[in-house]
């Protein structure tokens, strides 16, 4: 009789499958964030309805909308840069270094400015603003709504107690959504850090493009930036 596979076999198989999982495209990640933010707004509306409007939720709604707008404002230029720069980076990286050594100062400055523009688009301090606004939303829940609900417990008539119980449940659901959004932002930040590192390496090696060795390093890093941009947007590599 054939021996059945053991538990270890299935653990190994599941591990291999997990490792082969393809990351979401940046567009899928953006869709997850915007969908989660919309669902969060729906939760706020449900909370408002269930508590008959005795909680002031206007500031919270405004904070959620600020988060959505700052996120879109940050992501849009990054995606556009990565999508539009592909052919240009390929043109730079595929040229023989001997040809590029004869570039004029103006041509060298143009290549440098192309790479530097990527550093501007991936400014992580700007993405930090997005995360901070999300934390502001979380703070509204933890120290705003929760404290308000607890304070009202001793001040309201019995018919309102049920509303408070409903409020607590809805607040818990909404808080989970906020934490889910923060998790998505941390994932996005990881991708952005990887992309920015490649850009910074290329910039560091663009200082002496009249030197053959430095130029070869520069071309290699330009190719790395191109590949990382393709992976970031999950555009199929044509290399």
Terminal Cα separation, in Å?
Answer: 49 Å
Q: What's the structural domain tally?
A: 1
Please, how many helices? 9
From the alpha-carbon coordinates, what is the Rg to the nearest angstrom? 25 Å
* SSE succession: HHHHHHHHH
Unreliable segments of 5+ consecutive residues: 1-20, 235-239
Oligomerization category of the chains in this entry: single chain
Instruction: Give the overall average pLDDT.
Output: 76
**Mass-distribution shape:** rod-shaped
Major sheet details: none
Question: What helical percentage do the residues reach?
Answer: over 70%
- Main structural class: mainly alpha
Number of strands: 0
- The amount of beta strand, in percent, is under 5%
Write the layout of secondary structure elements.
Blueprint: H1 7-19, H2 26-50, H3 58-84, H4 86-94, H5 97-100, H6 105-121, H7 124-153, H8 158-204, H9 212-232
Explain this structure.
There is one protein chain. The protein is mainly alpha-helical and 239 residues long. The chain has one domain. The protein is built from nine helices and no strands. The longest helix has 47 residues, at 158-204. The protein is rod-shaped, with a radius of gyration of 25 Å.
């Amino acid at each position: 009789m054939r021996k059945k596979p053991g538990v270890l076999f299935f653990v190994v198989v599941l591990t291999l499958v997990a490792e082969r999982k393809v990351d979401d495209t940046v567009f899928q990640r953006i869709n997850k964030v915007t969908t989660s933010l919309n669902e969060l707004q729906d939760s706020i509306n449900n909370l408002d309805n269930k508590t008959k409007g005795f909680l002031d939720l206007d500031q919270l709604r405004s904070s959620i909308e600020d988060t959505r707008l700052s996120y879109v404002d940050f992501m849009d230029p990054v995606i556009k840069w990565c999508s539009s720069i592909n052919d240009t980076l390929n043109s730079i990286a595929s040229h023989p270094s001997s040809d590029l050594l004869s570039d004029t100062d103006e041509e060298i400055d143009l290549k440098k400015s192309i790479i530097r523009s990527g550093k501007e688009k991936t400014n992580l301090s700007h993405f930090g603003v997005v995360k901070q606004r999300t934390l502001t939303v979380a703070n509204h829940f933890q120290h705003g709504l929760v404290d308000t609900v607890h304070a009202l417990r001793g001040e309201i008539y019995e018919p309102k107690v049920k509303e408070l119980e409903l409020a607590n449940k809805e607040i818990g659901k909404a808080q989970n959504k906020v934490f889910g959004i923060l998790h998505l932002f941390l994932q996005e930040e990881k991708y952005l850090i990887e992309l920015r590192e490649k850009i910074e390496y290329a910039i560091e090696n663009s200082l002496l493009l009249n030197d053959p060795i430095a130029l070869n390093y520069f071309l290699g890093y330009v190719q790395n930036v191109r590949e990382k941009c393709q992976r970031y947007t999950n555009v199929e590599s044509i290399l």
